[in-house]
Amino acid sequence: MNDDRDHHPLHTPVIDWFDDNARDLPWRRPEAGAWGVMVSEFMLQQTPVSRVLPVYGQWLERWPTPGALAGDPAGEAVRAWGRLGYPRRALRLHAAATAIAQLHGGEVPTDHAELLALPGVGEYTAAAVASFAYGQRHAVLDTNVRRVFARAVTGVEYPPNATTAAERRVAHRMLPADEATAARWAAATMELGALICTARGPECVRCPIAGQCAWRLAGSPEHDGPPRRGQTYAGTDRQVRGRLLAVLREATEPVPQAALDAVWHEPVQRARALDGLVADGLVEPLQDGRYRLPG
What we know:
mainly alpha; two-stranded antiparallel sheet; 15 helices; 2 strands; globular
């Protein structure tokens, strides 16, 4: 490997820290392959590692290849998704697996543009798979990385609610020139944000770049931008959707309307949540008034 860490003063301390402190996660092991990396990226969106780990293992045991997943109905992917949340991700992963099986000989494509063309794969996921699975040079901007760059480079406590062009420019400017080093940098900055430079309790005393962090050098000023989006759940349509899906996941046969009516007391909200699940393709209504996961 052509070590290009000193391209920027932050590269060496962050990558060295990662070499010593990276968690041993199954999708980081060589045997995970590109498919294991892709599955992890779908599951880890808005879901913590602790909740993903057991489902990830069960998923790859059942569907070790894209073709294996594509060979089963999409409803089985939704069922196996369990309580990871945001179950449309299961449908998108199934659709991506189907495209990989049909268009790419069952192998996760190495080309970034081909990854981006897969259903359900956006800018972040394409860059993450290309970087983590294939060691390519891409700016990988998840929430953790964006927070590290906001503090260490830009000098503010939190990044904007949505990724901006300015953030992308910073990420590309910070990217090491060497491909392998760039891939390591992407993983290292993500881990730093997950373990040290966290949203609510950054551990600056343990941070390998505390002495170079623009936010800390500015006196750690409090966030003065738009309010940060909360993660409310109780009483929301999302909670109702989760309860409805739980009934369908546990059922081996189509479920009557009465069984779904029992999960939530408020009929208007319950109907709205069920209609949303049907519109999203997560629930299939049958002619006899019963419901099931998509066939």
